[in-house]
Amino acid sequence: MPGMNSGVNVNDPAVIAAFKSALVHQGIIALLIFGLLGLAWIAVRARQPAAAQAGGQTGPAGPSAGAVAEPAWRQVLRVGFGLLWIFDGILQAQPKMAIGLPSQVIEPSAASSPHWVQQVVNWAGTTWSYHPLQAGAAAVWIQIGIGIWLLAGPRVGWSRLAGLASVGWGLVVWVFGESFGGVFAPGLTWLFGAPGAVFIYVVAGALIALPERVWHDPRTGQAILSGLGLFLIAMAVLQAWPGRGFWQGISRGRPGTLAGMTHGMAQTPQPGFLSAWVSAFTGFDEAHGFAVNLFAVAALGLIGAAFLTGRRRLARPALIAFVVLCLADWLLIEDIGVFGGLGTDPNSMIPFILLAVSGYLALAPGTAPAGEASPAVTAAGWRDRVRLVGFPTVVSLGALGLIILGAAPMAAAQASRNADPILAESIAGSAAPLNFPAKGFALTDQHGQTVSLAGLRGKVVLLTFLDPVCTTDCPLIAQEFRAAGQLLGAASKRVELVAIVTNPIYHQVADTVAFDRQEHLAQVPNWRYLTGSVPQLRQVWKNYGISAEILPAGSMIGHQDVAYVIDQAGRVRQELNTDPGPGTTATKSSFAVLLADAARQALRPS
Amino acid sequence: MSRRRRQLPLLLAAAVVSAGCGSAARQPGATAAPAPPPSLSTSLVTTTGTWAVAVMGGPAAGHDNFWQLFVRPAASGRWRLATPPGVASNGGLVMASPGGRSVVAGFRPSQDLSYSPLATTRDNGTAWTPGLLDAGLADVPDALAAAPRGGRLLALLAGGEVQLSGPGGTGWTRLPTRRALAASAADGRCGPGRLTAAAFSPAGDPLLAAGCAHPGTAGIFAYTSGSWHPAGPALPAAYARQRVTVLRLTTTAGTTTALLAVGSGPGARLLAAWSTGAHWALSPPLPLRGAELTSASLGPGGRVAAVLTGNQAQAITGPAGSWRPLPAPPPGTATLAPGPAGGWDALAVHRTRLTIWRLPPGHSAWAATQTLTVFIQFGSSG
């Protein structure tokens, strides 16, 4: 999938350090948000009449007097998924996430899905790979924010809004992060997480967002369990469907579908005992594939049927069996899901347990004290309402601040089509400022005209060295130069993009013309590709520390990838390592930003 | 919940499950595909030496495969590396000889290089003069041809176009091809498809080869008087219903040699065809019996050697000869080249090591005569 993989090492220390730094800075801002809100709340409370304080923890979003008490099933969902979101947010803060999520989580999960799914997912993966720091931090703060918001309290308005936020972000993660939970990919199975863990977060969020009038209605529980039961029966049918490889432990000498999946899971970095358990299950499934699948089909079908009845008497043992099944699956098949440095959530079984328990609890006939709202509150003006703001409301506001803290920089970054320069810096390292006179040269450009460095005085020169018949780095560097020129916009009139041939064999003007045509540089007005005789070129190479080595046996010319930033006075201000690294769209864009920034810096009066 | 209500989810589930489980439509039987071209690994004979192309290096990644050019000077029995320097050869090498001592090598595009640097030598690869074709050569061993006189070159490009150079391999111009071929008198008989080879006739006219959509016709065309004319051999009526693809086409020492694939699948056969200008001579058919051609070498006097899958090799000495099986080629044989005394040399590659196996005339076994280790800069191409 183009663009999904920035090509930068997931353990790149520069990116990891920048990611940690971004999280620390945003963490300080998060503390400030909560601190300021807390101080404001204390100040307001200090001015609040004692009677109002005694009135309890009320707020504009939901009066307490006469309000409907939150039922246990909703508490389970709200607290359970609140904690899960916070845990997921913390997992997103793992060092490898910034670079690794698109290429090692999203891309593999989308690889077996249809082309249109890959297209959709690629858009998001490309966005992430262009802005790994902002995207990584956004995922952290948005998920922690939603989690805190859900935990903040049972107040009707706020918690329903938190439920909706959970639905919205959950759908984003489900579509772009989980490739629709893999539901369009072959090999779909409940045992391995179908329909995607975050889809259950979405369902839970929708249930939390339900209006008060259904909280104590037993039909809510029946609906939850029936829906879950229906889903489990469908999964049982899918699991039993012949030809999908689940009935065979070993097929044609290779592990069957389930054993193949668990074998792969056992290879990920994790504590040894877990790997041993999963490996043991893999061996068991290879030996008894038919029996394992028969058990899975029967268990899913029977539990699903019991849930589907909506009867408490049947649902209770089914729930116990379901919890046991989920825990066994979580340990032996899903492998807990959080290890390896790139785990994004504890997978689907814990959310399934929470959903089932919640559905069971909702079956109980509820007491719904649907009293009237507090007259004191309903009659209050806005000043009174502000004074009556409760702690949960303050926490909810803080959580909203966290979400904005993560989303705003990502939205701003998304508005730019250019990649973060951190990608280029991670490959090239940082450039120290320089200040010495650039050595002069006079060579022939692609139009046959003589061009000298002295003749370019008054303009910033981005100077590099390219082999016109190079197959790898030089075309990429040329593309980066062209993109840098475009990024400079009107300022590009004051910048010259200059390359000098670094091939002692292929150095004719015709070679530079072919290169320009290939790289669409012929129409770039400030692009100059210079060449000359071999002695002329060697002198320039020597002056700029370039060695052009003829390598044997079908290798291209070996030379340094470097660019010099020469200011308007003809002084070298920076030497940039332009080794393009993996040459992905993200790194090329990042290098272009780096080069354009360097040119802009040189344009500023010193 | 009423009974009907309870049944509804089950019906829905059944509908959903059954909707996703329709059987795939049966595909219609595929039409016989034209025979694939042989590898770029091949050999070429000039007055001063024998040349061969072979790929060496990494087993998988394309940018760790480096194509090499080897030469065995006429006065010597030993091969040496002669790959032109200055360009990465990962995309492949093709070669042509304008006659005499000259050899032109063309680099196929690879990775981010889309055009083809050229290199010419007149001293068996000791020194090379660079040149350039501002387009990418096709992935066939006869993508580059040199006129026997005047130094003109003919290039078959990756996009199916053809360019003709002026004297000395400069001043390239595009020749009309697809439409012109379709408009030629040949179209009715051939229905030319993918172009497979470029050559010059002994008289110096550009030749093109193609696979014909219409059966029974060998798609060879000559460019004379500004247009293309059919110039291929007339095939016997026995092949009238067989699809014919020209796999190789080259002119050496006044003889144009073509290698044709007739038919497809287990019944496919190879035919060699020779022309000195006016008429073509055809070889007896060589039944392939399911094997595929991996490398073909066309030598002076119309000699042809073919390396086939299944560890087989066949050779024919010219228009008067017949196909003769050679002893099983040594493991890793990339191509065969005419040997110093009329036999064959097999160039066998294992990563960076080239072993020369020789089969002198009248011998029944290959004998290793030389080993060359090529110093490849792995990783230099990304």
Question: Could you describe the 3D structure shown?
Answer:
The complex is a heterodimer of chains A (606) and B (382). Chain A is an alpha+beta fold and 606 residues long. In chain A, the strands form 3 sheets. Chain A has a 6-stranded mixed β-sheet. The longest helix of chain A has 34 residues. Chain B has 382 residues and is mostly beta strands. Chain B is 7% helix and 42% strand. In chain B, strand 17 and strand 18 form a beta hairpin. The longest helix of chain B has 17 residues. Classes of the chains: A alpha+beta (606), B mainly beta (382). At the A-B interface, helix 9, helix 19 and helix 20 of A face helix 1 and strand 3 of B.
Structural class of chain A: alpha+beta
Shape of chain A: elongated
Count of distinct strands of chain A: 10
User: Which regions of chain A contain 5 or more consecutive residues with pLDDT less than 50?
Assistant: 55-66, 370-379
Helical amount of chain B: under 10%
